[in-house]
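A quick aside before the break. I want you to see a complete sequence-to-structure record at least once, exactly as it would be stored in a machine-readable document. Don't worry about memorizing anything.
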Amino acid sequence: MHRPRGHLGGVVSPAGPVAGHGVGQVGGHGVGHGFDAASLRSGPPSSLSSAPQPRPLENLAVNLAGMALPNPVMTASGCAANGRELHRFFDVGELGAFVTKTVMGLPRAGRGTPRMAETPSGMLNSIGLQGPGIDAFVDHDLPWLRSVGARVLVSVAGETPEEFGLVTRVLRNSAAFDTVVGVEINISCPNVANRGLVFACDPDSTAAVVAEVRKELPPQLPAFAKLSPDVTDIVAIARAAVDAGASGLTAINTTLGVAIDALLLRPVLAGITGGMSGPALLPVAVRAVWQLRAAMRADRLPAVPIIGVGGVRSGADALQLLAAGADAVQVGTAIFNDPGAPVRVREELALLLGTHGFSRIADVVGIAHDRTPPTPGPAPKPKPKPKTKPEPTHQSGSAS
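That is the input. The structure line, written in tokens, reads:
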């Protein structure tokens, strides 16, 4: 089926619709509803020129466990390589932080092809953490990121907890380490010592990885555990990560999916399964962030910063994650269709926040929890009616 160039399941293009709500429209579904980004930017008709106009929120600064950022918008790991390609479209130093492609100890060729497949409202990827390894990263990629003034959140991974620690140690001892503002721990990879079970699916494995990374980092540098949605209880995994030393949480990674070729009747991807990302993932990400923030508010989980990621392609999408409880957001798959998406999302978010009258990012974080009516309890059972004794019956008879 032919699709217009640049179309990916509703992902925004610079001249196309925002969030699938019509040209320039941001909102719908309750968040930012009724605001039209294009009209807000261009101003009202001349007959309404005297009306006060919404102004973008200027102070977008956030502080995530000591990671001070000028704005809350980052790239998502794996969607912009290590910055050089994206820098041709905008200055990556403008971002709150640039999140690197996940780096492991040794070079990896990744999985066989085909490794990507388009799906309704998103895509599947089965790249297999291809990369040059930590030595090449600290010798070439990290110095370049420092040269353009980027604040770098380095995504690290390994096949064992010890490899996670080794990668972090090499990073810490590198010459350009001063440009690193934090580490994102990609625990959504198989643990070779535990039958290939993904670290993020087991609290003990999660804790072991986080502990190895934490002991290799300076105490003041934050570490964020990136959680998988493919678990029964995401709060239990988050608690294990935080108890082991994670400074914050990134929610969420991709969710596993399979696509079948309808003509060949076999999996599209060579690796069979792939991580699903794109607009279809947004409600799953909002749900995960909601559950994490709700657990923190109920003291079932220590309060730490949350970075929301999954399906963000507009300012309204980012606002959903913030309202659910995220302190910052990442933009990923939208970049494939619109390389300027992170900057555009930041501008749209600032306009929406200003329109709502917020004076800082912290004012909107988790606000949806306060605006949600309490869930009504079960209706009281009707009280049984008291039993009444039957009236005695009197039989009259004739005297003999």
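Two observations worth writing down. The longest strand covers residues 180-186. The chain has a mean pLDDT of 86. We'll return to this after the break.
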